[in-house]
């Protein structure tokens, strides 16, 4: 029996991708020394606030200057709140990508993955984090050339019609932070 409903087709594709990523997430767990372990407070439904269609005002720091541009996103919550799939689109730059967030129910931590539409490859390892007191933090150890840095992704200012995501870098193991990207989301 054929089903030509594009919503059902999109949902099947999202579920298939989520299943593959969940298997990959289990294999990619790594402990790091510089980044403190995130609070184990994750629970199903943490990302329910993000489901729906969004318009996003972006500010991204590039070579010491802030670049401002618009984007849009569609987010689907799946699997009774333990998965969230975001399609981000920046039409003016012919860019799209997918954020994939999966809850490890046992560890109470969320894995946050990224897929760039140009490569179609799930970017490992994920950042691990959770929400506490209305703010979600995901820190990961990375390198900037030869210098170790901590990259933070954070969700805050969450209301029924808006929220904010930002990225910040720390070059001193989390003592100070510099915002490098701010996304102000508003319901479409």
Describe the 3D structure.
The protein has a single domain, classed as Lipocalin (Beta Barrel), CATH 2.40.128.20. Mean pLDDT is 87; it is low at 18-33. Strand 1 (52-62) and strand 2 (65-78) form a beta hairpin. Strands 1-2-3-4-5-6-7-8-9-10 form a ten-stranded antiparallel barrel. Helices cover 12% and strands 54% of the residues. It is mainly beta. The longest helix has 22 residues, at 6-27. It has one helix at residues 6-27, and strands at residues 52-62, 65-78, 83-90, 95-104, 109-116, 122-132, 135-144, 147-156, 162-170, 178-187. The chain starts with 5 loop residues before the first helix and ends with a strand. It has one helix and ten strands.
Can you describe this structure in just a few lines?
Helix content is 12%, strand content 54%.
Please tally the helical runs, counting DSSP H or I stretches of 4 or more residues: 1
By CATH, the topology is: Lipocalin
Reading off the top of the CATH hierarchy, the class is best stated as Mainly Beta
Ends: how far apart? 35 Å
Secondary-structure arrangement, i.e. CATH architecture: Beta Barrel
Keywords, please?
188 residues, Lipocalin, ten-stranded antiparallel β-barrel, 1 helix, 10 strands, 12% helix, globular
Write the layout of secondary structure elements.
Elements: H1 6-27, E1 52-62, E2 65-78, E3 83-90, E4 95-104, E5 109-116, E6 122-132, E7 135-144, E8 147-156, E9 162-170, E10 178-187
